[in-house]
Amino acid sequence: MGALIGQMMQMPLLISSLVVHAARHAGDTEVVSKRVEGDLHRTTWAEIELRSRKLAQAFGRLGCEAGARIGTLAWNGYRHLEIYYGASGSERVCHTINPRLFPEQIAWIANDAADEVLCFDLNFLPLVEKLQAELGTVKHFVLMTDRAHMPATSSIAGLLCYEELIDAENGDWQWPQFDENTASSICYTSGTTGHPKGAVYSHRSSLLHAYAAALPDAMNCSARDVILPVVPMFHVNAWGIPYSAAMVGAKLVMPGPHLDGKSLFELFESEKVTFSAGVPTVWLGLLTYMKANALKFSSFKRTVIGGSACPPAMMKTLQEDFGVEVIHAWGMTELSPLGTLSKLMAKHESLPHEAQQRLLEKQGKVIYGIDMAIIDDDGKRLPHDGVAFGNLVVRGSWVIDRYLGNPASPLVSVDGEPGWFPTGDVATIDADGYMQITDRSKDVIKSGGEWISSIDLENIAMAHPAVHEAAVISCHHPKWDERPLLVAVLKPGMNVSGPELLAFFDGRIAKWQIPDDVVFVAEIPHTATGKIQKLKLREQFKGHRLPA
Amino acid sequence: MGALIGQMMQMPLLISSLVVHAARHAGDTEVVSKRVEGDLHRTTWAEIELRSRKLAQAFGRLGCEAGARIGTLAWNGYRHLEIYYGASGSERVCHTINPRLFPEQIAWIANDAADEVLCFDLNFLPLVEKLQAELGTVKHFVLMTDRAHMPATSSIAGLLCYEELIDAENGDWQWPQFDENTASSICYTSGTTGHPKGAVYSHRSSLLHAYAAALPDAMNCSARDVILPVVPMFHVNAWGIPYSAAMVGAKLVMPGPHLDGKSLFELFESEKVTFSAGVPTVWLGLLTYMKANALKFSSFKRTVIGGSACPPAMMKTLQEDFGVEVIHAWGMTELSPLGTLSKLMAKHESLPHEAQQRLLEKQGKVIYGIDMAIIDDDGKRLPHDGVAFGNLVVRGSWVIDRYLGNPASPLVSVDGEPGWFPTGDVATIDADGYMQITDRSKDVIKSGGEWISSIDLENIAMAHPAVHEAAVISCHHPKWDERPLLVAVLKPGMNVSGPELLAFFDGRIAKWQIPDDVVFVAEIPHTATGKIQKLKLREQFKGHRLPA
Fold this sequence. Notes:
7-stranded mixed sheet, homodimer, about 25% strand, alpha/beta, 26 strands, 9-stranded mixed sheet
């Protein structure tokens, strides 16, 4: 008889429909922005929608066709939000560039994406003036400000003024309908090796991610929320908040470039922020400022923390001292970015507080839409028992299939089934699906077929009172193939011997996982973003001979 | 340059992925069912997934191909849930039939859908035995019970036992991947005129509905919830709860046929239910029982009430006396069914309680994914000002395109743009998108180009102490085309004159909307489901001459 086809309306999942929804159902709900220009700017979802349409008209007037890449170098603010909707909604592609990268990386990325337009905040004018000669594909440079703030002169010929572009249009233009698999935006990974790689999101993937991200077990976004994304809009679309906020009609508060403790606290309080999201570092600054001034939050209820593991002590402080629920999350550029978030299940409500805390410190459970597995080096599934750890692989509607301009598939097979994205992380998954990152794949130590987490060993070494910093790397061993070597920097004026430090591991981890040796160094090499360069360390200690 | 295509994984949105997700991430979370057999049955999402797979195998063994319709006559229970997943997940179509319909309607619907298999609960055996001769397309009759409960003899030749079908399979079978636009299930509307019509949902429409239904501003479902759907699974898929519950890994409590106050209360308490959903009538029974026995809920936090308008007094009682948040909702079979739900926005939090209450008494705002408008009889948009009322039309990913077996499009145009589904309701929409039903399209009174809500007039008449029941219908008027006529039934022993009753409207509604005349009758005609038969009333009073 053959499959029956459903008889439902076919509506493509398009990003423009989010801002139209927000304008219609939360038209006077505010979008408040701390501007680069210094002041606090207030607008509404209705205005954002109208101006996004005018911006789309302006891109058309500039000669940008469907598929044209619109690059941005900008902080979180309403103009950046208008570019999100104006570019993607008009079948063009919003390409957010991380302005914190080295200038040559910025140029490389803009060229790789073939950006036609580059929109940038006022404070990035000197950077763009310096880079313009290298930006071969960019035809139009747009300064995201009004006429009053335009420079008297600039080395950029024909520098355009954002507000003038908007003002020249009448808004008499309708959002086009097109295939939901069309590219909506591009974000580049900040790879530690080689060139950055572009992830090309589609309207469909962004919309499904927006639904999932707003669910109660994820960011839990509603029309009663005031959301301040500390995570930048150039960092995986601010974790999708610009989309989920429009979906639910929440008020948005954009901090601009002012991410110091004082600026953030004042904005949280004056705008009555209920929800935020960001990396651990930013909370450190905020909490330090608040403690120093004996301040409390009056409206802030919960935050998602991701990007890197949230230290348990920070979770505890936020929850117990400041009354803020911390939702620990894991994701990556290739996942749009949300993969897992840690929330309790009904059966955990009767657990003692400490046991609940240990669950919440994990990276958490996948949201529906993402499928996850851990595999060994032969691609075989490992058990979800919370103990076995293996290479973390994922698949789902908002996971990349390949990178921009690179036809080679990065995907791997699981038990012979192709189509899984290897995250490069090593993790455990328990029977309820709670995932915990234990290492990066390239850093795990493979000893006689068993894996040892370098992070676990580093955390123990760092707990020793004499140790300032520690890194654990694999070292060749004739019998076990690899064994852990501890590289440690001592605190000024402190002292501990190698055997003493290794004895410190006794009882804190299984005996066979204890490092075979320690070397003390004056300094451990770091990347520009502060990560330990383990590759460099491994090269440095390639010839190190472990004790028998 | 042409549009750029996103480079994301292409994963079809399939219903089977929901139960796989639940089994993997909430495997030991319970599904508890009050069985027709009389006892309380406990299983888990992991078991449900396994048995759904076995059921899919069994359908294959019975010779059901892709597209085969699997009919059900069943209460809310785990076996019904397994049929949802086993049928839809194997590319067959789950067709839930309302057992409360007249037997001839049931037969007509099963034939119209061409059901190949009919699965039914034990207490429907006599009904099916009586109907079997008329069920021309049904090849297999499956009694949803175990061997011990099978009848010694039955007039149904080859009557199959559900548990035996399951037990004969090994579960060594994988959920197939196919086009997400494939039909997943069929529900028939209970039309007041003509034959019922079939809505054919797709996997895509059901999945998008499941995401939207679980959002904080909709049903707000999480892994911490224990959900008891009072709304039957034969009534628009229990409003999607079987899907949303699996999506978030919530515990499900299925009440079977026992919907009286005592049975429900005991189940709410013993299983620690946090969330429920149902029509107003069922809450009436529950609250009456609780009041009579001075009982309180210990875990129940919120409920969605829809199907028909929730009386404000019931909302107040549930919220103030029983501490249960009431979420007023509107939907219909053609909308899968959720269209709007009433929740407050951030800006309403400072409103006085009474003003909040008036908003919550409306049918609420659309969830993202549904688009809504009100139009006049010429298809022109009317303003969203909370005052203008017009024909309510909708469109979206979970709205039907046409009915089963009927190529004619039911859709209409809005300002010349085709593709909107006419709901048959008349409503207002305010500037924030809060919708309020004011009438059914066919019942509204069109007086000199202005519309008058029959429901508003009935509510006023019913507030008069002498009035037992009231219906307002349109009556031909030579000048105004239509004018309202009030038909009233007096309470036993009470009396009021026509002019006195009309005077009661003064100050309660605009003068020009007050009915022109009153007729007192002994009884107002009702349908089998208790609705006033206004068509019959209009025929009865066709010749009525209004006073000049």
